[in-house]
Amino acid sequence: MEPLIVLTLTLFILAIIIIILYKILKKTKTNNKVQSLNEKSSFQNPNPELNNPPTNTKENIGPYKIIKLLGKGATSKVYLVSKDNNLFAAKIFQHQDPELIERFHREIEILKQIKHINIISIIDYGEYNNNPYLILEYVNGKSLDEIYMDLSIIEKLDIVLAISNALNYLHSKGIIHRDIKPENILVDKDLKNIKLTDLGISRIVYWKPITQDGQILGTPAYMAPELFEGVYTDPRIDIYSLGITMYEIFTHKTPFHGSPSEIVMKQIKEIPPLPSLINPNIPSQIEKIIMKCIEKNPERRYKNVSKLIEDLLLAREAIKKENKR
Ligand code: AMP
């Protein structure tokens, strides 16, 4: 054989060996990398959702990877998402109605001004497929309507106190929530992380209403009677809704039932049965607080949330003492 052919063949074989070696080396490195990433995520992240993301959710919302659907609101969908090994809730607005879009932007504006341990905080916002979205702090738990039946009196009181503190803060900033109800209170498994959410219809007192046609926003079963009579609203409507929320969590029933229009009539006219007629175990101090919150006449309710908190704390102390006896 010609020496040139021998040299070319040797070089060719050498090149093939180098390529094969390179490929083997690269594969080993990638495996190590994947393994170390997995180790890192299972070490750093106690959330099983992140370690085993469902395979069918490949989409991203901006830099956030969708893990699963958490829930649906009236105008939006909420997804569990992750970024840099952290979990968040992504709320994607799903309507084209300009009034509703303005309301969603209003929620962003309100959330940007808020920093309170018992109110969901906003992390980021943007647009996804032409729909606005917000990235919110994630609560790994359930809403209060799903869990209140399993809670003790003191646990319920502590949740009401946390939400009262959140409301007191909002009111001090001139913001009325306007949709206080168990569904809008998120609570984690050990009841430590208690957050008020859904500020979609909150209003800063000095802002003009967005509804053009006198439409009333809120959930009738929790709404103060003066709202249906077109009276100018003040923070005491939130105290009323918190009273109905307390009524529900302590008796396992809202006071008024029927079609939306029947509920509205009852909110205006009907005095609800005393909570103790439904649940004889309800402490008298709590019953008194609930009935004061849900007075039809706002003048007869707590003047502000601070006064309500004072009574809640006194009730808590008295109930704890009675339980010790
Ligand atoms: P919303 O549109 O705010 O009423 O949210 C709809 C549902 O999504 C709620 O009932 C919750 O189940 C869920 N959700 C909303 N925000 C969060 C959050 N920050 N963390 C966990 N779940 C949430």
Task: Report on this structure.
The strands form three sheets. The protein has a six-stranded antiparallel beta sheet, with helices on one face. It has helices at 3-44, 48-51, 98-112, 144-147, 153-172, 225-228, 236-251, 260-269, 275-278, 284-293, 305-324; strands at residues 60-61, 64-72, 76-83, 86-93, 122-128, 131-137, 141-143, 175-176, 185-188, 194-196, 203-204. The longest helix has 42 residues, at 3-44. Mean pLDDT is 82; it is low at 25-56 and 205-213. The relative contact order is 0.09. Helix 7 runs antiparallel to helix 10 and helix 10 (284-293) runs antiparallel to helix 11. The chain has eleven helices and eleven strands. The site of adenosine monophosphate (AMP) has 17 residues, from strand 2, strand 3 and strand 6.
Overall pLDDT score: 82
Q: Between the first and last Cα atoms, what is the distance in angstroms? A: 106 Å
Could you spell the SSE succession in H and E letters? HHEEEEHEEEHHEEEEHHHHHH
CATH architecture assignment name of the largest domain? Orthogonal Bundle
Strand content: 15-25%
